[in-house]
Structures are given as C-alpha cells and as structure tokens.
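#struct-pred

JT: dropping the chains for the assembly here, can someone run the whole complex?
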Amino acid sequence: MRYKYCPFCGKELKEKFSYDEGYVPYCEYDDKMYFDLPKPTVVVAVVKEDDILLLKQSYIYKNSKVLISGYVSNGETVEETVYREVREETGIEIKDIKYLGSCCIEDKELLMLTYMAYYKSGELIKSPEVEGAEWINIEDALCQMSEDAVGKKVVNEVLKQIGYEGSNAYRCNFKN
Ligand SMILES: [Zn+2]
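RK: done, full complex below.
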C-alpha cells in the first residue's frame, strides 16, 4: 500500500527522496518515511510418513484445503513463526524445518515464505480459528487443494524433496 496520509497525525504525506528507494511518502511533522512494504507471511507443509497436514479454512477457500499459514509478528524470526503457527493452529510440534522459497501476491501485499517440516510430537488439536485439521495422504493432497495455488506449488516441491517417484500424486495438478 502506498501511504497517502500519516497513520500517526493524519496529515497528508509529502514525497521525500531516499537515495536507493527514490521518492518515498514522508510526514514532515513526525519525520517518518512510509515505505511500501509487503507483509511477510509463512506457509508450512508438515509431513508425517506418507501424510501431509491440511487445514479447512472456508473463509480463505470455500472448496479446498490449505496448508498452515500465518503472519510473521513484529519481533519474531520467520523460523519462530513457522513453529508457532503450526503449534497454534494444530497443537503439534515439528522439527527439521526447511526453507523452500518465496512467492509474492501483489494485490494482497503478501510476501509468502514457504517451508516444509516434519512432524515431531503431539496430537492434532485444532484451534477454534481452524475449521478442520487432517492428515491427508500426500498422493491425495493436490486434489484437495484446488484453490490454493501457492500451497500446490509448495506440495509439488515437497514431493521432490521427499524423493517421491510415483505419478499419482500429480494427477490433479492442472485440474480445478
Ligand atoms: Zn505525521
């Protein structure tokens, strides 16, 4: 979001030249620059033997399941967010997290940092903010995630990472 007004004093922002960034919205009263920054979020694929953990979150996608995701809090490392979001949404502990790459969704101003992790301990106890949390056989995951484009990319990468050699898991890659 390109700021027009100062969130502190409400006055209209001027533009100020900031060497690397060009002209940046600036409040001369509060002496603050408002850079146009994406919001960092994490997306996590948790693997347990042949299963992967999927959530049902109808407010995000009506007809499909999604991977665990959440915003990085101020003062938190991205790795801490990965462990926290999995714990908060599903009650389990994970181990061996691995960064798989990033995606951006410009219209939602999101920078999504994607990870895979392995199940470590605990029973699935979904949080009240989650409609459903379920271990799904990894060969069926892509078929149940039709609306989650980023999640599907992550699952495709997970299949490579775990050395999956079949073809069945990919059968729904291009179906909606
Ligand atoms: Zn101001």
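JT: nice. The helical segments are 78-90, 138-141, 149-161. The chain has three helices and ten strands.
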